[in-house]
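Reader question, answered in our methods column.
A reader sent in the components of a multi-part assembly and asked whether the whole thing could be modeled at once rather than chain by chain. We filled in our standard form and ran it. Here is what they sent:
COMPLEX SIZE: two components
ENTRIES:
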Amino acid sequence: MTSPLQQKLKVTGPVVVTANRLGDGAVVYRTADGHWTNDLAAAAVVTTAPAATEILTAAVADRLKAVDAYVAPVRLTPEHGVLPGNLREQIRFNGPTVALPGASPA
Amino acid sequence: MYVYDDFDRTLVDERVREFRNQVGRRLSGELTEEEFKPLRLMNGVYLQLHAYMLRIAIPYGTLSAEQMRTLARVARRYDRNYGHFTTRQNIQFNWIKLEELPDALAELARSGLHAMQTSGNCVRNITTDQWAGVAPDEIEDPRLWAELLRQHLTLHPEFTFLPRKFKIALSAAAHDRAAVKVHDIGLRMHKNGAGETGFEVIVGGGLGRTPFIGKTIKPFLPKRDLLSYVEAILRTYNQWGRRDNIYKARIKILVHELGAEKFAREVEEEWQAIKDGALALDAAAVDDIASRFRHPDYEVLADNPPELAKIRNGAREEDKRFRRWLDNSVTNHKVAGYSIVTLSLKPVGEPPGDATAPQMDAIADLADRYSFGEIRVGHEQNLVLPHVAQRDLPVVWRALDAIGVATPNVSLISDIIACPGLDYCSLANARSIPVAEEITRRFKDLDLAHNLGRLHINISGCINACGHHHIGHIGILGVEKNGEEYYQVTIGGRADEAAELGTILGPAVPYGEIADVVEDIAAAYLELRERPDEIFLHTVQRVGVEPFKERVYAAR
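And here is the structure of the entire assembly that came back:
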């Protein structure tokens, strides 16, 4: 499989770097200070390919905390701040769009 | 039920220990993700959109009540209280943590369950008719042969790194309920002119990006030659199958490009060299496997006992509901006085194929009490209690109804086969589950659904076709166009002994219109059919796709 770093990165709007946490597969986002968070609002948002590449390079090098890092689009809104940029990312962020069968009560 | 011996148990236990070590090394950083990924895939572990997914094999779709309770326990302890039964008689847990996977696998292993060969480029779970061993139209129980193949092909060193994944299905009944013609190898048991039972060998079937109906390369293969001939096919594929292009790596492409006749000649040449060697099955070896299957100790009973007759003639609302379920979900058994009961995992507005831990526990209890401790999983994503005495049907129905698995919609329009789609799957382009849920809501009126009759809808969230959309009477394929979900519709597909691929109806429609399209197709069918017993598929065959196309696209 081609590494995300070997793929030509096209950035046409705001993006973040996202991955899945190694231990449980949960969706995480790369922060500006080089950590991972599950809070999209705390993710580093960039708008250029060089800036995205820099964050992605560091994210891919972090082999122990998260896997399959890639650049994902986001939307910046005045009311809600950073939001996922497409349906796939919305589902990764919010979970399935359908009710889970037999979900344990909170 | 097949009873595993010490060899089987040791093999599974050792595999769990090995994988526990591998997971530990990954979590400590000793293994990179690149090194670990092929190891986790060999143990059925995928990384999906939100979490790891664990796929567990249910060989030839047969589960014991104890195994079902184990699945419930795993769902409760390690997942989110439910599991998803798949189109290949597996079950998937969608929220497993890598850190807890070895413990979950150890729990499964104690009941003889495992995840070996549920992923990777190897021979996957061998599937068969969910009514195997109990269907009246069956020549013999195909599970014996499925078990022989399972044993031979489990961790087979020569076939661990095939060009691509490899799926085998068997059927031994006149009516194919195992979709053998769309598998890499399909084996259809039948009798030859001399009255001997053997296999028609079909190769190169498959769906996905490039769908094909399989080609028969051996009209009659004697039973003794099953392992050697399958070995010859796999060797031929291993040698000639493409490894340079993942999209052209399945055996269906090889058979298509070589031609079935040339492929058959290559297999024949390989087979002649090995057919009389160690893989030739002698009666003692077959008898040994057969002796480890435990069969129910049926009572001597008569069909149509008085307990049923009373309700059949009853006027209460409950009696009417029972009769509808009886007519829809209960099938004749080969033994007098018994029935095969299908449990619909397709309630209105719910994800197809999902079962909660409490449902699994309740089904296990019912299996123990009323079905000799046995449960089956069908590729249609429903469950089966295969040995229910007819006198027990009323009480079984009430119990199934109470846990939500007695919707009388088996093989009807709301009995939808669907992949997990974009709600879970990292490969998907579009959602499948909410589309299925909306269609079931549109057809929740059971009078309408029964009036429409036998009508199979299959939904896939991407071209990989895990929902088998090509062979749905109505097939729905999710695609992505400019960031939006669209759905392409096919009609006229079928998965049985006369398997055919559906024909594309026209341009894909947006997410918000797909349920309307299904309603339009259903309405057109009701107008076009000549008689109430002309099923949808036969109407499509008689009139073609054009009248449906006109109906669907007239208003769009």
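What stands out: The first helix of chain B runs from residue 6 to 28. The domain at 142-291 of chain B is CATH 3.30.413.10 (Sulfite Reductase Hemoprotein; domain 1).
Send us your own complexes using the same form.
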